[in-house]
Amino acid sequence: MTARQPTKTTCPYCGVGCGILADVSLDGKVGIRGDTNHPANFGRLCSKGSALGETVDLDDRLLYPEVDGQRVSWDAALRLVGSQFSETIAEYGPDSVAFYVSGQLLTEDYYVANKLMKGFIGSANIDTNSRLCMASSVAGHKRAFGSDTVPGCYEDLEIADLIVLVGSNLAWCHPVLYQRIVAAKGKRPEMKIVLIDPRRTMTSDIVDLHLPIKPDGDVALFSALLSHLFETHAIDQDFIAAHTSGFTDALRAADAMDILAIIEQTGLDQRLLRSFFELFARTDRTVTVFSQGVNQSARGTDKVNAIINCHLATGRIGKPGASPFSVTGQPNAMGGREVGGMSNTLAAHMDIENAEDRDRVRRFWQAPLVAAKSGLKAVDMFRAVADGRIKALWIMATNPVVSMPDAGKIEDAIRNCPFVVVSDVIAKTDTVRHARVRLPAAAWGEKSGTVTNSERRISRQRSFLPLPGEARPDWWIVCEVAKHMGFGAAFDYKSTSEIFAEHAALSGFENNGTRDFDIGQFANISETEFDRLEPFQWPRHVGEESSIRLFTDGKFFTRDGKARFTSLDLEPRRTTPAAYPMTL
Ligand code: SF4
Predict the structure, then answer these.
(1) Cα separations (Å) of 16 from 12, 151, 203?
(2) Distance from the CA of 55 to the CA of which of 134, 359, 387, 467 falls in 20 to 30 A?
(3) From CA 406, how far away is CA 402, in angstroms rounded?
């Protein structure tokens, strides 16, 4: 028996961002269905999303604020956090504190955490677990396009004639995208799929060609492809001349390898290389999908640019069924990027190293100061905790003792940090147990706000369960701490719709088409409109129709409006130290 209308919300597990209908029955059971109207999944769900109803019980939940293992009132906990952070900053400066946040946060949570650290504390020491999976794509996009832009959309996966999957096990990691591709190939069996992965994963079940590349052979492979495209006249000379710069240098760098070097670096034989190169060269509608096998690498950014180089050389960008396509792991890695949730970015895709951007954000926020330089990235942040430079650390919605590399050192660092706050849903994680202050956060079914999926689609997460115990949404916790630190006027939000409206307004502030991320159409969104907000893709400039793809006009966000080829170093590199010569 269903008690009320289903709630339209979004799956919190991966970057596909599937729409969900959640039904709460009178006995409190939660039924989960795919939302047939959501453009990410059109009703499909994978086994993870389908099982969400089994995750909403209160077992293991952190339900009350705690200090030193004792339950305390919210006021006491917030006062302590505010005063400890303020005193640490007063004594040691803004860079003595840090936030480590998460792609599990909603965009509005992320926005206020970033605003507090970068605009009001005056440090950029906020970084996110998304750093570990997405930073290479962000850097690669910015190097090529002048902006962190994913140009394509999911529809491209269905209308492409060739899909190249690089370092991506979609069948497990983005199952609904995999299902969409399987369905498209069922309708058009002539569609070709290539998998480039050292392992023969479950995704290989649907592919026409598997290239079992050596780990880290991707830069060599796509550089050799660039040379092949030039030699076989498969490049788009007009597009290169009108819309790009740096092609000659990139090609010269790519030409540095002979066939023996290519075989050595990629581990692929000539027959496989030829099959892939010829297929890529003759197929205009090509989408190259890449994810963690590309991003999580010592040369992740170069891999991203090696792929983008081939798309720029063939003009396969901004066109239906033709795009490089980075797919995100976490549900809101993209939302985090939009609000500048990394230590080297600024809100609304602005640049922390750019004085004009800093000044613009400072004026918009009416902030006393905006951090003047990049902060510590995730690994460096925990090194700074370990060596005592960071004296107060707030971890939100993530468990770095388990998820960071070199976990033992991370645990030691957190254990020895003078003041650690963790806001989380779960009472006993490996990280929570080292926190002096534990703040109970709202979980998926209790939260309200927005997330952005891999195709730039912003969707609502809507709460359908009451807040249990004294759990509170992350945005509320951050804003209350900000008030205790003396920044009340800038953090006086009543709901996530007000935060979303401010985020939208900042994205459109003095933009005039100069920045890719612009959802200025929503700057005056009301609470009711926010409640009803349907999934949409950015950008949404004021007064303009939206487009589901970017760069359709061949204009990029660099100074000269041209995309940049990247010249890549092809000297073989040892990415594992001699003492540990193993790649997993
Ligand atoms: Fe959730 Fe991802 Fe599965 Fe969709 S594909 S239901 S977003 S885990």
Answers:
(1) 10, 16, 16
(2) 134
(3) 9
For residue 72, give every residue at least 6 positions away whose Cβ sits within 8 Å of its Cβ, in sequence order, or none: 64, 65, 66
| Residues lower than pLDDT 50 in the chain | 1-2
Q: Which of 10, 13, 104, 291 to mutate to test the pocket of ligand 1 (most atoms within 8 A of CB)?
A: 13
- Distance from Cα 230 to the centre of ligand 1, integer Å: 39
Q: Ligand 1 centre from 364 Cα, in Å?
A: 36
Evaluate the CA torsion angle 349, 352, 355, 358 in order and state its sign.
positive
Percent of the chain with pLDDT over 70: 98
Residues 6+ apart with CB under 8 A from 444: 12, 52, 55, 56, 461
- Which residue of 9, 10, 18, 330 sits with most ligand 1 atoms within 8 Å of its CB, as the best mutation to test the pocket? 18
Q: What is the pLDDT of residue 193?
A: 98
Which residue among 174, 182, 444 is best mutated to probe the pocket of ligand 1, counting the most ligand atoms within 8 A of its Cβ? 174
Nearest CA to 118 out of 101, 139, 133, 106 is that of 101
- Exposed/middle/buried for 512, CB within 10 Å: 0-12, 13-18, 19+? exposed
The chain-wide mean pLDDT, for the chain, equals 95
Note the pLDDT of residue 457. Answer: 97
Report the nearest-CA residue for atom 4 of ligand 1.
18
List ligand 1's pocket residues with C-beta within 6 A: 11, 13-14, 16-18, 41, 45-46, 48-49, 174-176
Q: Whose CA is nearest to atom 3 of ligand 1?
A: 46
